[in-house]
């Protein structure tokens, strides 16, 4: 696998219309708060955030492919690297590191050093077990599923 240029997502990120990061973070917090009020169970909120993210990822992949000029990835490791360095940069303005690969090379962790979703967030004790950023897992899952069906 050829290494990605270190700033490959920067050019695309600079040309994408985006909402102020603080506004996005506050809006996301309001969505999570409303889900907690409506659904009352933290496990149900986690499922709903994942499903919302999945629906976003299914639609987001087309924009990613159209604007990133990324060619087809050779394997899952390269795909994870593109998601971490280009995808997160394009849509969140941050990059992730790819770690914790399993022996088969089929499972890994994407670690965000700076997560814009958690700005201004302080969870109360009643939210134990809430996967606050579960929407990101859903986005990645939805996008990857669409990639699998399109190739």
TrEMBL record:
Domain of life: Eukaryota
Location in the cell: Endoplasmic reticulum; Golgi apparatus, cis-Golgi network
GO cellular component: endoplasmic reticulum; Golgi apparatus; TRAPP complex
Listed InterPro entries: Bet3, NO_sig/Golgi_transp_ligand-bd, TRAPP_component
GO biological process, one term: macroautophagy
SUPFAM superfamilies: Ligand-binding domain in the NO signalling and Golgi transport (SSF111126)
Alphabetical UniProt keywords: Endoplasmic reticulum, ER-Golgi transport, Golgi apparatus, Transport
Assembly, per entry: Homodimer.
Similarity remark: Belongs to the TRAPP small subunits family. BET3 subfamily.
Function: May play a role in vesicular transport from endoplasmic reticulum to Golgi.
Name used for this protein in its record: Trafficking protein particle complex subunit
């Amino acid at each position: 696998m050829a290494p990605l240029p270190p700033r490959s997502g920067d050019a695309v990120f600079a040309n994408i219309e985006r909402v102020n990061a603080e506004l996005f973070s506050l809006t996301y917090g309001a969505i999570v708060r409303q889900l907690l009020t409506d659904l009352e169970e933290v496990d149900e909120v986690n499922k709903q955030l994942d499903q919302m993210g999945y629906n976003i990822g299914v639609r987001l992949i087309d924009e990613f492919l159209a604007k990133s000029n990324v060619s087809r990835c050779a394997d899952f490791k390269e795909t994870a690297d593109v998601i971490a360095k280009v995808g997160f940069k394009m849509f969140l303005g941050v990059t992730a590191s790819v770690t914790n690969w399993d022996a088969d090379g089929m499972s890994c962790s994407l670690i965000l050093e700076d997560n814009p979703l958690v700005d201004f967030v302080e969870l109360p004790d009643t939210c134990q077990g809430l996967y606050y950023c579960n929407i990101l897992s859903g986005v990645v899952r939805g996008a990857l599923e669409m990639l699998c069906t399109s190739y």
